[in-house]
Design goal:
The chain has 336 residues and is an all-alpha fold. The protein contains 16 helices and 2 strands. The protein has a two-stranded parallel sheet with strand order 1-2. The protein starts with 15 loop residues before the first helix and ends with a helix.
């Protein structure tokens, strides 16, 4: 299992328009090229406004996934806790954003711009397609026959934290993040990699705050729904159902307690290892860069290359390019 945000890497020295034109220039076979990244979402408005600069060389089709607003805010909050060390309660997180979902605000803007500029697009309600989102995207790009159904069967595409995991990680961030800013990433990665199929729970938003969320974002939700099939539309202020008390069976409660026990053990073990004074001191970014460069010099054995990349990854666990280099080196070593 790999934790990734997509195959496209943002280049701060070049605009998305420049990068797309360069990709098109190097695409001598006129192949279909799929770019995927969370970062692309935020760059779409600028790209669409610059259509005159790329439309002659790029045949663009945008696939945009939207989510139910409660689910999206829960996911965004969890991401802040997992990757950025946030320790604020969910209620404070919502108030700090004035109850606005930046993702729905931006999605509404992107959809309107695509419509005005006549850019082909496919909008997917991710909340309704969690189980088949990958297969659906393969179908949209015309590669349905290539979908690896065997490998994807039962796969967890987007594993969030359970309520107990989130509660503990928020506490750990409050205690340790200022001194160990990598702690939230290390622990959340350990949980997701070692217990990938645990049933995550959506963060529960208090009733009054939830009403405020739907009220403040109603215009964005309405704008998005105008471009979705009626059966695929997101819940809005007027269509959301009244909250119903859900009773859990004895079997569900037992399963949840067992999963919590496993998570707590994993968190404890990871925390002890991460904070052990005898563990290796974190290397500087310059040192990690030097290690990666040395590993790719071509003058080392493949086993040494793997060892160097593993050392680099210990000190840069979020490095996506580093993860790909290590995976490739391991595969090459296994073939020798």
């Amino acid at each position: 299992m790999e934790i990734t945000s997509g195959n496209w890497q943002q280049n701060p020295e070049a605009s998305l328009t420049q990068q797309l034109r360069e990709i098109a220039k190097n695409n001598h076979n006129n192949s279909i090229i799929i770019l995927s990244s969370e970062s692309l979402f935020w760059l779409m408005p600028e790209l669409i406004k610059n259509k005159s600069q790329w439309e002659a060389s790029v045949d663009l089709h945008i696939i945009l996934a939207v989510r139910e607003i409660e689910e999206m805010l829960s996911s965004e909050y969890q991401q802040r806790v997992k990757r950025h060390g946030d320790a604020m309660p969910l209620e404070q997180f919502l108030r700090a954003r004035h109850f606005i979902s930046s993702h729905h605000e931006k999605a509404a803007e992107v959809i309107e711009l695509m419509s005005q500029s006549n850019i082909p697009s496919t909008i997917i309600n991710y909340s309704q397609h969690k189980r088949d989102i990958s297969q659906l995207i393969f179908k949209v790009i015309g590669a349905e026959d290539l979908y690896p159904s065997g490998k994807m069967s039962g796969a967890i595409i987007n594993r969030s934290l359970s309520r107990k995991e989130l509660e503990i990680l928020v506490t750990i961030n409050a205690l340790y993040y200022s001194k160990f800013p990598w702690i939230s990433t290390v622990i959340s990665d350990a949980l997701i990699k070692n217990q990938p199929k645990l049933e995550a729970q959506q963060c529960k938003i208090a009733k009054k705050q939830l009403e405020k969320v739907y009220e403040m974002n109603d215009a964005y939700l309405q704008s998005i729904n105008a471009h979705l099939d009626p059966s695929e539309q997101l819940l809005t202020l007027s269509t959301r159902p009244q909250e119903a008390q859900q009773e859990r069976s004895a079997e569900q409660i037992k399963k949840s307690l067992e999963e919590e026990t496993i998570s707590i053990r994993l968190i404890g073990e990871t925390l002890l290892q991460a904070l052990n004074p005898k563990s290796k001191r974190k290397l500087s970014n310059d040192t990690v860069d030097a290690i990666i460069k040395l590993s790719q010099s071509g003058s080392l054995s493949k086993s040494t290359e793997v060892e160097l990349l593993e050392l680099a990854q210990e000190n840069r666990p979020q490095g996506q390019r580093l993860a790909r280099l290590l995976e490739r080196a391991k595969k090459q070593l296994a073939k020798m």
